[in-house]
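Protein modeling request. Please complete all fields; requests missing the sequence field cannot be processed.
Requester role: graduate student
Desired output: 3D structure, token encoding
Chains: 1
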Amino acid sequence: MSSRWKIGLWIAGGTVLAMVAALIAVSVEISRGARGWVEDSLRRQFNSNVELSSFRVAIPFPLVQGEGENLALHFQGRQDQPPLILVKRFTLRTSIWGLLRNTRRISFVHLEGLQINIPPREE
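Delivered output (123 residues):
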């Protein structure tokens, strides 16, 4: 085998290893920050306090899937009324690239046990 082939194989192998290392680093970062991203996004979107009993992330490349349980959104932090939104279980799915964008995009949401409580009008 000529030295050009050996050099080419070393470069190709190094490139593949670098890509795998980068994907692992991105996966770890997504797993660490996912719960905070979900809670912050819901807090801002609904102007509510967010309660979430559990949240797990799986990354079957190139997808990211999050699963959570017992999500409650208390509108404007009001604990004297029932939560505005209750969800027993939910599943989110998107691509890694959708999460790394400035405005994160979720491509699939599945809700189980959704309950919406409309608060009475203020006098």
